[in-house]
Every structure is written in structure tokens, then in C-alpha cells.
Amino acid sequence: MWGIIATWRMAKEGLEKSAISLEQGGTSCDAIEQAIMEVENFPYFKSVGYGGLPNEEMEVELDAAYMDGDTLDIGAVAAIKDYANPISIAKRLSKEKVNCVLVAEGAEKFAHKEGFERKNMLTDRAKIFYRKRIKEIKEQELKPYSGHDTVGMVCLDRQGKLTAATSTSGLFMKRKGRVGDSPIVGSGFYADSKVGGATATGLGEDLMKGCISYEIVRLMKDGHHPQAACEIAVNQLDKELKERRQKAGDLSVIAMNNKGEWGVATNIDGFSFAVATENEKPTVYLVKNTDGKCICEVASQEWLDNYLTVRMAPIEE
């Protein structure tokens, strides 16, 4: 049995390619890296990699993480600038016994030493979005933070190995040096080949408060199906935050167990994800939360076509 599940429609093309590799016996280590690299390299996705939206100083700072479910090895980078594929750097760091989580200048020095590709990740398109947001903030008193669509994946190969990985440019207009949940083990991602894996997307500051990815894996270990585990974790954290803080940020999660069964949950409308397994061709779903239960509907071709049309449309300042 093999399977791969990913947050958001933007993962579709990478997931399709990795599904072919997994079907042919490829490893989850390689499949998950290649699938995320596809997202990182596409300039029209505003929340990941090249073309990612910048911080308040118009710099693109990237976070990424990788976890091996067999060994529990982790690697992560945070607030790294000017490197093309942070997921590959995170994966490389997972081979280190210590110093496996690096940030900012330290992460960049490691990447340079290891020969990773340097690249200016700030595109002209992203600069326009930045300048437009500055203007909107001045004219409408909007909060600067907007957009936090992390690509997160869980992957299972025919050998039974599970991996989890994330990549993001974080909140649009975030403060320099801000780090969300994505590169934090147990919050943004977690994988255990004996049980399953999970990853999260949304408001990192709130997702971290529940260590939500680890919580989902723990629930699966206790016997819950991935769908039930996701719903329990999201509903409990959403309730807890609202009781203690009067509101909860966006919380969306995906999971897969070591049988290739998957689950998803969210507290928002508009969450999408992609999944492929030995028994299911690559499919994009839209998710609705109805009284704590998540209903998944296959995205129509019209919706899929419109998704890219909107993101690739010309923009004017």
C-alpha cells in the first residue's frame, strides 16, 4: 500500500508526479521532497517558495521541515532567505545527529556549505502585491497579515515508511524573523511509521498552542481512524482557544495512517487538499465543516480551472 496527501490545491501537480513514483516502488523520502519542490518552484503560488509573499521589510523568509517516520529524524529551517528549495535543505539537515534545526543566517551558511542553489526568491509579482498591501493598509487601516497557506504533506511508500514535510513563506507582511508552526516538530508536522503522520496549515501561532500534528498521531495511536483523529484535534483546539481567548485562528489539518487511510479537518470554509493512494487516483477535494464534522467533496473541473486562472492572472499596481 502507498499513499500521499497534501494541503491545498497547489500541491496537485507535485502530488501527481510523486504518485507515479510511489506506484513504481519509489521511496516516500524522495516522493515527498519532489512533490513539495514542485510547489516551491511555481512562481504563482504566493505562500510557498519562489514568488512567496514577503515580510514587512519586503524580504522573502522561508520555513520548511522534514521528518522520517522510521527513525524519527527531523530537519528544519526557518527564516531562511535566498535559497531555492528549503525543503531539500531541511531534508539534508535530518541526517544530522545534532544541529538539525537551523534558522536565518545559520541556515543560509549551512546551505551554502552544502552546495544548495542560491536564488533571489522575491519576484516582481510579489513586489506588486507588497506595494498594493502597503497602500491598502494606509487607506483602509487593514491589518498587514494576510495569507498563510503552508504546503504540508504526509507520504507512505510500499515499504511502509512514512514521512511528513512542510514548506511556506509564512504570513504575508510578517515581522522579520517571525516563525510559525510549519518548522516546529509536533505542531506543523509529525510522522511515525508505526502509526501515521499529520501536518497542519493555518495560523501558526494558534496551531502551535495545541501541538496539533503530534496530537493527531497520538489519537491514531490510540486507535482512532485518521478522519476521527483530525476532527477531534481541530474541534478540541478550536473550542479551547475560543473559551480561553474568545477566538481561534484558521486551523486545517491532514493525516494518513500506516494503512494508507486518510483524514482531514478544518474550522474554516474554503480549505482544499489533494490525495492519491494505491486505490484512488490523484484527486482534489474541497472541505466543509458542518457542526464539527468535515464533509469532503471532489472539486469540479470548473473550480480547478478557475483556481489557476485567478492565480496566474495579470496584476496591476
Structure description:
α1 (12-23) runs antiparallel to α2, α2 (28-41) runs antiparallel to α3 (86-93) and α7 packs across α8 (226-245). The protein is α+β, with helices and mostly antiparallel strands and 317 residues long. The longest helix is centred in the C-terminal third of the chain and has 20 residues, at 226-245. The chain has helices at residues 12-23, 28-41, 86-93, 104-113, 124-140, 204-207, 212-221, 226-245, 301-312, and strands at 3-7, 62-68, 74-80, 101-103, 151-156, 162-168, 189-192, 196-202, 251-257, 262-266, 271-277, 280-290, 293-298. The protein has a single domain (3-312), classed as Glutamine Phosphoribosylpyrophosphate, subunit 1, domain 1 (4-Layer Sandwich). It is globular and about 50 Å long. The N and C termini lie far apart (49 Å). A 9-stranded mixed β-sheet has the order 4-3-2-6-5-1-11-12-13. The protein is built from 9 helices and 13 strands.
Task: Describe this structure in a few short sentences.
The protein has 317 residues and is of the alpha+beta class. It has nine helices and 13 strands. It has a nine-stranded mixed β-sheet with strand order 4-3-2-6-5-1-11-12-13. Strands 7-8-9-10 form a four-stranded antiparallel β-sheet.
Short descriptors:
34% helix, four-stranded antiparallel β-sheet, Peptidase_T2, alpha+beta, 317 residues, globular, 13 strands
